[in-house]
Structure formats: structure tokens, C-alpha cells
């Protein structure tokens, strides 16, 4: 087989893979939750499995992000501090601020399907 044929076959294989598995298909989009005025906003979100959720403290006082099931817990977050967690398993996850337990939120993690499924 000539070098031109090999190069053409290789190029065709790469292009076919790019069409079947578009860039970004292996990762779910990331989501941010703002912490401000003693609230999580949005308070409830839905993400696909594999998504990373980042909480950002925009309040003037420290807050935490703690899973009700003890799956994750942040340190005390000062103003502009961030905490991230990647949700790999579908389910319903409730969380709260351990310093201010009236602050609550929830995340519904759906199975990754179709073109957004992890490869």
C-alpha cells in the first residue's frame, strides 16, 4: 500500500471517529451554584452523570456545602472561595450549609445517555 493510500485511510478513520464521537461528548457540562444572602442559587438543579458542580461563595460570611448523605463536604468557604464535586452516579442528592442548616439545596443527577454518554 502506498504512503498516500495509508495517509488517506488514516485521515478517513480520524474523520469518522470525529463524526461518531464529537468533541466534548465524553464530558457532561459543568454547573455553578452561587452562595449569596444565605441561599444557594439555583436551589435545585438537574445535571447528567459526570457533571461537576461548583459552588461559589459570593456572600460576606463563610458557608459550607455538605451532603446530607455525607458523600461530600467542603471546608468553610470564605468570600469568593469555591468547592467542586463531580457527580458520577445518578440519584437525588440533598445538601446544606453546616454553619447555617436552614440553607438547603438539591441536585438531581440523571444517567448520561445518547451523545452525552461517557465513553
Explain what this protein looks like in three dimensions.
15% of the residues lie in helices and 35% in strands. Strand 1 (31-36) and strand 2 form a beta hairpin. With 119 residues, the protein is of the alpha/beta class.
Largest sheet: 4 strands, mixed
List the uncertain runs.
4-27, 114-119
> Strand arrangement, largest sheet?
2-1-4-6
Briefly note the structural class of the backbone: alpha/beta
What is the helical fraction, as a range of percent?
10-25%
How many separate helices?
1
Tell me the number of strands: 8
Q: Into which percentage range does the β-strand content fall?
A: 35-45%
Q: N-to-C terminal Cα separation, in Å? A: 32 Å
Query: Averaging pLDDT over every residue, what do you get?
Result: 81
Query: What's the helix-strand series?
Result: HEEEEEEEE
Overall outline: globular
Alpha carbon gyration radius: 20 Å
Briefly say what this structure is.
With 119 residues, the protein is an alpha/beta fold. 15% of the residues lie in helices and 35% in strands.
What order do the helices and strands come in, and which of them pair?
Blueprint: H1 3-20, E1 31-36, E2 39-41, E3 44-48, E4 51-57, E5 66-67, E6 82-87, E7 91-96, E8 104-110
Parallel strand pairs: 1-4, 3-8
Antiparallel strand pairs: 1-2, 4-6, 5-7, 7-8
Amino acid at each position: 500500500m502506498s504512503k498516500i493510500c495509508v495517509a488517506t485511510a488514516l485521515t478517513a478513520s480520524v474523520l469518522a471517529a470525529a463524526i461518531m464521537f464529537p468533541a466534548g461528548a465524553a464530558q457532561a457540562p459543568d454547573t455553578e451554584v452561587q452562595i449569596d444572602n444565605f441561599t444557594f442559587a439555583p436551589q435545585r438543579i438537574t445535571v447528567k452523570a459526570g457533571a461537576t458542580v461548583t459552588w461559589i461563595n459570593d456572600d460576606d460570611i463563610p458557608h459550607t456545602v455538605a451532603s446530607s448523605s455525607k458523600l461530600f463536604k467542603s471546608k468553610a468557604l470564605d468570600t469568593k472561595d469555591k468547592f467542586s464535586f463531580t457527580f458520577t452516579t445518578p440519584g437525588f442528592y440533598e445538601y446544606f450549609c453546616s454553619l447555617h442548616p436552614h440553607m438547603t439545596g438539591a441536585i438531581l443527577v440523571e444517567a448520561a445517555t445518547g451523545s452525552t454518554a461517557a465513553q
